[in-house]
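User: Run a structure prediction on this.
Assistant: Running it now.
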Amino acid sequence: MAATATVTLLSVGLPACAQEPATPGNVLEARDAHRRKDTARLSALRDAAIAENQALASWVHYWDLNARMSTAQADEVAAFYRRWAGTYVEDRLRNDWLLELGKRRDWAALAADYPRFRMNDDREVTCYALLADHLAGKNVREAARTAWFAQKDADDGCALLATTLFEARQFAAADAWRRARVAIDINKPRAAQQAVQLVAPSLAGDVTELSDNPARYLARRRPPMDRTATELVTLALMRQAAMDPELAAQQLNSWQNELRPEQAAWAWATVGKQAAIRLLPAASTYFQQADLLASRTDREPVWADNTLAWKARAALRANDGKPRWQQVVQAINAMEPKEQGDPTWVYWKARALHALAADSSDPAALRKQADDMLASIAGQYHYYGSLAAEELGRPITLPPVPAPLTRDERDAALRVPGLSRALLLISVGLRNEGNREWNFTLRGMDDRALRAAAQLGCERELWDRCINTSERTQVEIDMAQRFPTPFRRELTHHASQAGLEPAFVYGLIRQESRFIVDARSGVGASGLMQVMPATARWTARKVGMSYSPDMLQDRDVNLKLGTSYLKLILDDLGGSQAMATAAYNAGPNRPRRWREGPRLESAIWVENVPFSETRDYVKKVLSNATFYAALLNNREATRAPSLKARLGATIGPREAGVPAPDAELP
């Protein structure tokens, strides 16, 4: 839409009683000027937007000041805060200004402004704020360790915090080496180098070498070695594990006697994690070796929750599909309390306790503990909530339909300025900015207000705003909002033509595109079903359909090609919706490899999908489909069909006599 476009107030959600249309004004020109770093043009656009009281003047002003942040003065920032008080851009600029104050080392100003940062979603700002507190004499050691260890990429704020606390002897050498290990584990060598710089400045350059070529680095090292040298060897072994865990295991057997037990335990845990990600059968055994060495230390190592998650997953698929339940419990118990409370681990710990109950001293008590854990999530409307209900022998129930929204409640949503700005931003193509404005505005809303805002999104056919907003409610659960059925006639037609269950297709589209017809991913997937151009060409040829690239944005063409492709991979994978969903996200060759090895309970197979995005995707698509199956049949339904039935009993290697996989499937 052009910058001069006019959008009626009603179409963007502004009060219907106002008669003049809201226009985007010069916001698109300002956005482009910001991208070009044209500060002179931005200043002129800002003055015009404010003088004309344009609906999106706050954004024009934000881009103007953001572009000049390095030279901005405190008085003009304060003036911005006053003018746009309570808005998204006020808080976003506060984020920018706090980072700038940290760079300027203006700790007094930062400490004064930080408590007003409502989103508080910037790790570097958190590190700067903790440093300001430390310099003011407060004890921030534990909070600072948590923030530093959670840092993913090297940045000034967290590095300065760590350096300052290390020099103040509040951080020890052991903290720095732990930070380096955590960074190497997630392949962030610059962050690891920052940590090593604290304890061994002359050897910080070794981190680059051991990250790039750990095998060569290890080949050049000879015992005996001091503590620093063995720490660097440990990092190299961890890096080698990420490249080739089996080779790393061989090298670790050679190096183990030169390492402290705690160092060797870390290395074996990393080998176990990387082996588990590759679905290697030895993964669980590698973790057992790590546990054995950890038991010989004065203080057992505290591994990252992600490592412990892979320890639990490896234990689930160990022994040719006969889980090591004790190891599952051990891994989950070692997680941070917040992670233990995730429904994933509540469910699997409960399953483990059930399995272990028969051989315990008090089987009834252990079974009750397991049932209580399952019951704690069984009423939640997600993948593991449904599996927990079925594990208890209960049906998957749907919540009662909440009382309809009143006209006053719906009109109140129309009058919320932040929602109005969001809708106007989206209407002129600034969807990311509009979504951020929308989400910020939802803060503090109760269930009724959230449902009214969600309904506003539904009525504007902004299905992502409709769904995501409705999912925030805690008590009033409106399944019709959470699981809308746009394009029902067209979708049902194409699903039926392809031989697919419409609920399955709805469940997939809800996750793929949130029903945004013109959605386009960063890798080029397009439309409702996020079909890749090469996949579209191949599928069109396969089903005998004429095709050109510009057709992919057409809703019906996208549905036709997407459903046809989904059916082809479903058939290729033996009708398994779990594997077909994984294939739709990650390509068919990956689930073909992932199904090799032991025959597993389907829920265990899904939990062991190596890619976190694909694993989460499969769970959500199948959970979506389960609820859609109930709602498509009856909007007043109180029960959903079985998720376990949709998963199927087991997943394993392709059976003898079954046709070979279609090698052409893209």
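The CA atoms of residues 455 and 466 lie 6 Å apart.
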